[in-house]
Specification:
The complex is a heterodimer of chains A (about 375) and B (about 260). Chain A is α/β, with parallel strands linked by helices and about 375 residues long. Chain A is about 75% helix and about 5% strand. Chain A contains 13 helices and four strands. Chain A has helices spanning about 30-45, 60-75, 85-100, 110-150, 155-165, 170-195, 200-240, 245-250, 255-295, 295-305, 310-315, 320-335, 340-375, and strands at about 10, 20-25, 50-60, 75-80. Chain A has a four-stranded mixed beta sheet, covered by helices on one side. Chain B has about 260 residues and is an alpha/beta fold. Chain B has two domains: about 1-85 and about 165-170 and about 180-230, Rossmann fold (3-Layer(aba) Sandwich), CATH 3.40.50; about 90-160, no CATH class. Helix content of chain B is about 40%, strand content about 25%. In chain B, the strands form two sheets. Chain B has a six-stranded mixed beta sheet with strand order 6-7-8-3-9-10, sandwiched between helices. In chain B, strands 2-1-4-5 form a four-stranded antiparallel beta sheet, covered by helices on one side. In chain B, β9 (about 215-220) and β10 form a beta hairpin. The termini of chain B are far apart. The chains are: A alpha/beta (about 375), B alpha/beta (about 260). Chains A and B meet through α1, α2, α3 and α13 of A and α3, α4 and α6 of B.
Chain lengths: ~375, ~260
């Protein structure tokens, strides 16, 4: 494999037709130095060149291509071609002359106008996406109604599978994180309330904060990251594989088969997960109160009972089905828009998680405003 | 060259998948410059044999030598170097879906030699033209290609490093008879002009007749290797059914009819 580094040696540069000898291995491994020596030859020789190929050790398509290209640009004549390279040269020459190489290049350089145009395109795309999503929302609602009217179309096994995957199997992670959030809130709250000698109100903070807002929000965000991305990737991979098209040709409605079980599964699973998260967060907060504030569990429960109404709990959990609907819908919508490439699956999975977390927080804000207007 | 005239030498190969024995003592020699066709029923383990030889799967027993080097004894680095000397065409091309065709062809060139951009563009054009694809194809993504174009593009990528040895996994499956015939012709042309040695898994009797020097048949977990004429005389019932069934007869009649 050792290359001498010398590919072209001058022999007789006196006359009108300068003679050079080619040597070494004219193969793809040495394409770079070979390309350089050939362009140097052009500068050196100027006029008529004769190239003797008799001493070339090895040649492949790249070597042949570079030789032919140089011969063409320098208007050189090629002599003494070894018989074993003749067919190769002939074949490559045919390929080169068939296609004048002017590929359609993709522009990648930066310019201000292009950047502005890009910003505009993105803005339009965002609004187009919003309209598309609204369209999809209508489609899902219409299909759901159709399924409710014809219960025979309902797929109980698929639904239960989704509840198991997105609810049951999410219990450990949701429980652990909720527990830790409870610990953090109790600790930070106690630290601040201590200044007023009102440590006992930490329990009220926990009760209201977790039940009304944090429990459901944390659960929804975990589920958006966990299940929303899974929906997009699953359906997206099916798109890449043409499985979604196959469903349609078999007379099955992809919305009915793929989207409805996921949407309803999550609508059932997320409120249950939220309840579990609430319990775990309060257990975490209670443990912290016991350790750091010396509030024993019976006293903690007494204070908790006096601090909120059952309504507080429902005001939190009522949001869960709405979050679930948005997460599942956005996830499935993104999955169905995947193009036939692996990169596209990744792109839409990211978009799905970002969009669903964004929408969850927007809807949460909307609920806050509605509840404030209703004075509850 | 140090490896002599046998590019691939398989001795006593045994492979198992999930406890099921697929190959039980396979011996195989692939000579420089020949085209070997591997046939066998669906599920007989033709593709597994190819994948085992190129090192994608580990054999349960036996030795595999490629270019005179025993695969299992090579270090990671030596293996990478060896991989640069063969090309593999997977069944559906296995092009990287997020790269254009030209970028697909450039992947091994960039990885192995770090060539400058202008050379990459030119080499990709050359390879495309060698496999009979138009220059415009370079900027297309794999999803925008037809099945036949994907196979040609996959072949162009397999040829990127000018390998001496080419592994093809069902190169003509899923192509219409005219495209399949063109593809056979292309492989024969490339074989003569580039001096390739080809290991080809196939279902296609026409391909066998058109380009293979020898044929290896996977039956009963073993290989029977011979020329077409030898195998056609073999009394084994599967071989009889394969060559003398309606499709086999049609392909043979075609061949003799065309001269």
């Amino acid at each position: 494999m050792a290359d001498s580094g010398v590919f072209i040696e001058p022999v007789d540069t006196g006359g009108r037709n300068k003679l050079f000898v080619a040597r070494g291995r004219w193969v793809v491994q040495s394409a770079m130095p070979l390309d350089k020596s050939l362009s140097d030859l052009g500068k050196l020789a100027g006029g008529g060149v004769r190239l003797d190929l008799g001493q070339i050790e090895a040649m492949d398509t790249v070597g042949a291509f570079l030789l032919l290209r140089a011969a063409q640009t320098l208007d050189a004549s090629v002599d003494n071609v070894p018989a074993r390279f003749a067919t190769l040269l002939e074949h490559v020459e045919k390929a080169v002359t068939k296609e004048p190489a002017h590929p359609r290049l993709r522009h990648r350089h930066f310019d201000v106008v292009g950047w502005l145009a890009h910003v505009g395109q993105v803005a339009f795309r965002v609004s187009a996406n919003a309209i598309e999503l609204l369209d999809f929302f209508g489609l899902v609602v219409a299909t759901s109604l159709r399924v409710l009217i014809h219960p025979s179309r309902f797929r109980p096994v698929a639904l239960l599978t989704q509840i198991q995957r997105n609810g049951w199997m999410a219990l450990p992670i949701v429980g652990l994180l909720a527990f830790l959030i409870g610990v953090v809130i109790a600790y930070q709250g106690a630290d601040q309330l201590k200044q007023f000698g009102a440590q006992i109100l930490t329990v009220n903070l926990l009760g209201v904060g977790i039940l009304r807002e944090l429990g459901v929000l944390i659960t929804a965000i975990i589920v958006a990251g966990r299940s929303g991305s899974a929906f997009t990737a699953e359906i997206g991979a099916m798109r890449v594989n043409e499985e979604v098209d196959a469903l349609e040709t078999l007379g099955l409605d992809p919305i009915e088969v793929l989207v409805i079980p996921r949407v309803f599964g999550l609508i059932i699973a997320l409120p249950l997960l939220t309840f579990f998260a609430n319990v775990m967060a309060i257990v975490g907060g209670g443990a912290m109160c016991w350790v750091a504030l010396d509030i024993a569990p019976p006293a903690f429960l007494e204070q908790l009972k006096s601090s909120f109404y059952v309504l507080t709990f429902w005001l939190g959990v009522i949001k869960a089905p709405f979050f679930a609907f948005v997460i599942a819908m956005v996830g499935c919508h993104a999955g169905l828009h995947v193009q036939r490439s692996a990169e596209s699956v990744g792109h839409f999975t990211t978009a799905s998680v970002v969009r669903s977390i964004f929408l969850v927080i927007v809807i949460d804000a909307a609920f806050s405003i509605i509840f404030a207007q209703l004075h509850i | 060259m140090d490896e002599g005239d046998i590019l691939v030498r398989v001795r006593g190969l045994v492979t198992e998948i999930g406890g099921r024995v697929l190959h039980d003592g396979i011996d195989l020699e692939l000579k420089r410059g020949e085209v070997l066709g591997v046939v066998g029923g669906s599920g007989a383990g033709k593709s597994v044999l190819l994948r085992t030889i190129v090192g994608l799967m580990r054999p349960a027993a036996g030795t595999i030598e490629v270019f005179g080097q025993q695969m299992s004894r090579l270090s990671e680095g030596e293996r990478r170097k060896l991989e640069g000397r063969w090309g593999v065409l997977f069944q559906d091309g296995a092009l990287f879906s997020s790269l254009t065709v030209a970028e697909n062809i450039d992947v091994p060139l960039k990885e192995q030699f770090g060539l400058p951009h202008h050379l990459l563009v030119e080499i990709a054009q050359l390879k495309l033209s060698l496999v009979g694809l138009a220059a415009e194809t370079a900027a297309l993504y794999p999803a925008e290609l037809s099945g036949g174009m994907r196979k040609r593009a996959g072949l162009a990528r397999a040829l990127a490093l000018d390998p001496a040895l080419l592994f093809l996994d069902e190169p003509t499956a899923g192509l219409d008879p005219i495209s399949a015939g063109d593809f056979d012709q292309l492989i024969r042309d490339l074989k003569t002009s580039l001096g390739l040695t080809v290991f080809m898994v196939t279902h296609d009797l026409d391909s066998l007749l058109a380009i293979c020097d020898r044929v290896a048949v996977l039956i009963d977990k073993r290989l029977k290797i011979g020329t077409m004429a030898e195998l056609m005389r073999d009394p084994h019932p599967w071989l009889q059914a394969y060559f003398h069934g309606p499709r086999g007869r049609a392909a043979l009649a075609d061949k003799t009819g065309a001269g």
